[in-house]
Design a protein that fits this description.
Blueprint: H1 3-26, H2 39-43, H3 58-86
Length: 87
């Protein structure tokens, strides 16, 4: 297994974890922030979900710093993969 493939595999696993955390956080949208069309729930599932801290209750807010960190590490893994693949 090459290093390029290993870094890509790590990046994909981190991305899957990030999406799972987004779904977990979206279940913690404050009741007063939910609307009948579900727009705020969709906003909570975007790529930038950890930065919408006004949407979540306490449990959802605890996930936000971990989501920011996971996003940073996943992007760094994709950049590392691109750098290794370009060599």
């Amino acid at each position: 297994m090459s290093m390029t493939f290993a870094v890509l595999a790590v990046a994909i696993v981190l991305s899957i974890g990030y999406v799972a955390m987004a779904f977990a956080a979206s279940s913690h949208v404050k009741p007063e922030k939910r609307d009948s069309r579900g727009v705020n729930r969709l906003i909570a599932l975007t790529l930038w979900w950890p930065f919408y801290t006004d949407l979540y209750d306490e449990a959802g807010l605890r996930l936000c710093p971990y989501g920011r960190l996971l996003l940073f590490v996943a992007v760094a893994a994709y950049v590392a993969h691109a750098a290794l693949a370009a060599q």
